[in-house]
Specification:
Elements lengths: L1 H7 L6 E8 L4 E8 L4 E2 L6 E2 L2 E4 L3 E4 L7 E7 L1 E5 L4 E4 L13 H11 L6 H7 L4 H13 L2 E4 L5 E11 L2 E9 L4 E6 L4 H8 L10 E4 L3 H10 L4 E4 L1 H23 L4 H7 L1 H8 L11 E5 L2 E5 L1 H9 L3 H19 L5 H15 L2 H12 L1 H5 L10 H16 L6 H13 L5 E3 L2
Parallel strand pairs: 2-7, 11-14, 14-15
Antiparallel strand pairs: 1-2, 3-4, 5-8, 6-7, 8-9, 10-18, 11-12, 12-13, 16-17
Length: 427
C-alpha cells in the first residue's frame, strides 16, 4: 500500500488509502479518507473531533500514474462544532468540496491549455473530463483577466485577424512588439470601438510609436488617442504592395500569351515566380538549379532563367528592376535619407508608365511619412504580430473555430502571456 502513495503522488500525512481496486476498464480505484482526526471549524476556527456523519463517497478523476488511469473514491465526514453548533463537511486539498475532478487534474488541464496545438476536445479526452469542464476552466481563467489595459508600453502595434465569433468577423489584437507580449484581444476593429477602449488607458501620452499597416482607421485612432506617438507602417505591408505590382504584370502577361504557350509556362512556374519576388541580393545567381525542360530535368543558372523571362516583356524587366530599387532602399537607406530616395523611386515609377507600378507608387506616396518612420529603428516592426497571428490560426484550426469570443480571447492571452497583469481585473 505504501507504494501507491509514491506512484500517484498522494500526501501520506494528509490522506489514508483504505482500499485499491483494479477495474476491468483498466482504471485503478483508490478509496481514501482524511487522515486527520481533528478539523477546524470554518465559522469559529476552533478544532473539533466530533463526527456528525459520513457523506456518500465522491468519485474524483485523478491524473494518470505509470500509464494507468486513476480514480479517487473520497470518503468525507461531516463534523459538529460544539463551540458554535455548526455542522460542516471536512475539506481536502486534493479536490474542491463538490468537485468531480481533483485539483491535480485541473492543474494539468491548465498546463495543456498553454499548448496552442491542442484543441479543447483533445484536452478533455486526455484528462477524462467533459469539454464543458475544460471550457469552465477557460472561463475561470478569463474571469481573472483585465477588462481594459490601463498602462501601455512606449511601443505598441495594431493588427487584426479573422475571428468569426458571435461578436463579428474580425478581432483586433494589441501587442507590445519590443517585449513580445499580447496586451489584449478586442471583439472588433471599428474606429469608434477602439476610441472608446483607449480612453481607459492612463498613459496614452507616453506612447511613442504605434506600428500597423496601411489601414486608415488605425491611423486616425493613433492621431486622436496618441497625439505624441509616431505612426509606423510595417515594412512587410508596404513591401507586399511592390511585390504584388510585379506579380500583376506577370499575371497580365500570362493571360496575354495563353495556357499552351512557352511564355505562359515560364511565367507560371512556381520556382520562377519566387525568383521574381525574392530580393536579388539574397539569390545565388551562379549556383545551378534544376528545371523541367523539353521532357526532362536540366541544370540551369538562375541568372539565365531571369534573362529568359525578360525576353518575354520589357515591362516585366523594368518592373523587376523597380522592385529591386525599392528593396535596396528598404535594406540600405537611413532615416535621414529615406524620404529623398523614396521620392526618386516614385518618380521612376511614373516615368516607367507601367500601370501596376504607377498605382503602387501612389499608395507609397500617400503613406510616405509613415513609411519613412519605419527607418527610425528596424526593430519596430509587426514581425512578432504576424507570428502571433499564425499561432492564432493554429488555435482556431485545431479547435475547428471558436464561436465564443470570450473563450477565444482567454485562450490566446493565456497561451501567449502565461501570467496576466497591467490592467483592471473584473469584479
Amino acid at each position: 500500500m505504501k507504494d501507491y502513495y509514491l506512484l500517484v503522488g498522494l500526501n501520506k500525512k494528509e490522506v489514508k488509502i483504505l482500499n485499491v481496486t483494479q477495474k476491468i476498464e483498466g482504471i485503478i480505484e483508490l478509496e481514501i479518507e482524511n487522515k486527520s482526526k481533528k478539523v477546524r471549524c470554518p465559522v469559529c476556527h476552533k478544532f473539533t473531533s466530533s463526527v456528525h456523519g459520513k457523506l456518500k463517497p465522491i468519485r474524483s478523476v485523478y491524473i494518470d500514474a505509470c500509464g494507468s488511469k486513476v480514480d479517487l473514491i473520497i470518503h468525507k465526514k461531516r463534523y459538529r462544532c460544539y463551540a458554535c453548533n455548526k455542522i460542516f463537511t471536512e475539506k481536502l486539498s486534493i479536490n474542491t468540496c463538490k468537485g468531480s475532478i481533483s485539483n491535480k487534474v485541473k492543474i494539468q488541464i491548465r498546463k495543456d491549455l498553454l499548448n496552442y496545438n491542442l484543441s479543447l476536445k483533445f484536452i478533455a479526452d486526455k484528462n477524462r473530463v467533459s469539454i464543458y469542464t475544460v471550457e469552465k476552466e477557460m472561463l475561470e481563467i478569463e474571469s481573472t483577466m483585465p477588462e481594459h489595459i490601463i498602462n501601455l508600453p512606449r511601443v505598441i502595434s495594431f493588427d487584426e485577424f479573422k475571428a468569426d465569433t458571435e461578436e463579428g468577423k474580425y478581432a483586433f489584437i494589441l501587442n507590445d512588439p519590443v517585449h513580445k507580449k499580447v496586451l489584449d484581444i478586442l471583439p472588433n476593429r471599428k474606429k469608434e470601438y477602439l476610441l472608446q477602449y483607449f480612453t481607459y488607458c492612463k498613459n496614452r501620452h507616453s506612447v511613442e510609436f504605434v506600428i500597423s499597416d496601411m489601414y486608415e482607421p488605425y491611423l486616425l485612432v493613433t492621431k486622436i488617442m496618441f497625439p505624441k506617438a509616431k505612426y509606423i507602417v510595417d515594412r512587410f505591408h508596404y513591401i507586399r504592395y511592390i511585390m504584388d505590382a510585379l506579380d500583376e504584370i506577370r499575371i497580365r502577361l500570362q493571360h496575354k500569351y495563353g495556357e499552351k504557350s512557352k511564355e505562359y509556362k515560364l511565367l507560371k512556374n512556381k520556382k520562377n515566380v519566387s525568383l521574381l519576388r525574392k530580393y536579388g541580393n539574397e539569390i545565388d545567381w551562379w549556383i545551378y538549379t534544376q528545371r523541367y525542360k523539353n521532357g526532362h530535368m536540366v541544370d540551369v543558372l538562375p541568372i539565365d532563367i531571369l534573362h529568359e523571362i525578360f525576353t518575354i516583356s520589357n515591362e516585366l524587366k523594368e518592373g523587376y528592376y523597380l522592385k529591386e530599387d525599392f528593396l535596396d532602399i528598404v535594406n540600405h537607406a537611413t532615416y535621414e535619407d529615406a524620404e529623398v530616395q523614396i521620392e526618386k523611386w516614385i518618380s521612376k515609377c511614373i516615368i516607367s508608365n507601367i500601370p501596376e507600378f504607377i498605382e503602387a507608387a501612389g499608395t507609397i506616396s500617400r503613406w510616405k511619412e509613415y513609411i519613412v518612420n519605419s527607418f527610425i529603428d528596424e526593430r519596430y516592426s509587426n514581425g512578432f504580430t504576424e507570428g502571433t497571428n499564425n499561432k492564432i490560426k493554429v488555435i482556431k484550426r485545431v479547435g475547428f473555430g471558436y464561436k465564443s469570443f470570450k473563450l477565444l480571447r482567454a485562450r490566446i492571452l493565456y497561451v501567449f502571456n502565461k501570467t496576466l497583469s497591467g490592467g483592471t481585473k473584473k469584479k
